[in-house]
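Case study: Major facilitator superfamily mfs_1.
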Amino acid sequence: MQIHGKYATLALLCLLSGLVYSDQSILAPNLTAMGESFGLRPHQTDTLAGDISAGIWFVGAPSALLAGWLVDRLSRRWLLFLVVLLAELPSCLTIMLITHPWQLIALRCCTGLAVGASVPIMYSLLADMFPPSARAGIAALLPVAQGAGMAMGQVLGSAIGTLAGWRLPYLIVPLMATLVAGLFACITRDPPRGGTEEALQAGCTYEERMSWSKLQLMFSTPTNVLIVIQGLPGCLPWGVLVVFLNDYLVQQKGLSAQGATLVVLAFGVGCSIGVVAGGSVGQACYNSSRWLLPALMGSSMMLAPFPLLTLLNLRLNEGTLALPLTLGAAGGLLASVPVANLRAMMLNVNQPEARGVAMAFQAMVDDLGKGLGPSGVAILILRFGRERAFNIAVASWWPAGLLQLMACATLARDEDKMQGRLRQWLQASQHGHQQGSPLPGSPAALRAPLLLHPSAAGVPTRPPFC
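Here is what the predicted structure looks like once written out:
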């Protein structure tokens, strides 16, 4: 049995993405219980949580890069199944074998393989399933699924952990993720590469492969550079909020475990709304004028720290849940507006064969930021205490917003150049690679001059972004 409908395939991808990410947030509501089971003091528990998070994301970074290089060489659906299988099975061992903290760190690090490698594989599939006119909304669905998965991970971790201990969720969620990955590999098929690109709608088969010269071209594209660099400061708060916020609200702010989980859930709901609304509003901004899209993203990111800084510094109790719920939702909404748009921008300024590697580099920097976040904040906690350390981390969204605003000057130009290269490849293919003309995708072709005026190059002045 095979599924040919792209929307059914998309639904399975979203479900799998949510399960992979839910595995990362199971520990948050059980942080204190986990530390007590190992006989750790509170500051040792914080350090262990930071080490686990750092290990997951540091494994995810090279995994993303390797997967990005392999996506145009192997079957993407079976590659996705393989990384999920190798990542999630060690989590199942957590419930049976863990007796020392270092064992927990080692087994949890394995899940970084799925977190990192799944990003370039999934987005490469989406780019070949949906045309540019639909990518922003489609690209928004995966982050929504990931956010929903992380929220559900906290809910499951809290509910099951309270009844049966903190270990049992690590058996249930990984098994579900592995089963869905196997189902996806068996009943779906890989879409043709480049089949949704406007410049390649002439019935030809696009079989270009990633090369070192194209990697150099990718790194010389200003929009790529800005998107990748902003990920370092931009991801620090995410790692902190996922790992520490729940326990911080209980231990330092006096909320119950259920109240803290509700605040984190409100943050996740805000994130989901922000991703969906950000994709829709970003599309409208782009259709009006392309520079408005990064302007929207950067402005939203610059505003995001304010509600979360207020939440971190409030005096809370069970009678004032309305305010922390509102602040958590507002912070999640503002911080999530750029999420789908950043990845859609990266898909649209890179050629089909380069998208997996481009997304891998973006995911790799994200992983480094998320890994350094909890680990670095654990060090800051020892020096300044939790409250000041978290304030410093959340404030790092401000430099990320500035870098996103700089893309106002680069996005349109880089998209036009990419479409021009695809048209150049198509023309060379249709003319049978005439003698003396460079082969499409070769270093000589990549260095060939392009007609930069959109109308002269045959590139529409407003190529569809999403």
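For the exam, be able to explain this: The first helix runs from residue 6 to 22.
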